[in-house]
Amino acid sequence: MFEIKNTIKNTECIGLTMVKLTQEKKYEILLIVLEKGQSFPPHSSLRNTLLIMLEGNVKFNINSERYTLGKNQIFEFPAKINHDVLANGNSKFLIIR
């Protein structure tokens, strides 16, 4: 009936890992895990997106601007804009879109 999952806690920082935690008609939640020095290559989303940092530190590049995001910070960005992410340290963050 109800289940507690430890997916976020148990996903190790090895390379680039993307785990779909849930998907509904109106949104999906993804866990992105980046090992220090790894990057998530340029891409865009079809939906407006909310990024929630759980651990670590990343450089987020969008519209020729660079943002440094750390633990417990939230960053929102619109759909259809290319962006990429570089991990300054082992990092975990949620994408809600």
TrEMBL record:
Residues 31-92 form the Cupin type-2 domain. Pfam families: Cupin_2. Gene3D superfamilies: Jelly Rolls (2.60.120.10). Coiled coil: none annotated. InterPro entries: Cupin_2, RmlC-like_jellyroll, RmlC_Cupin_sf. This is Cupin type-2 domain-containing protein.
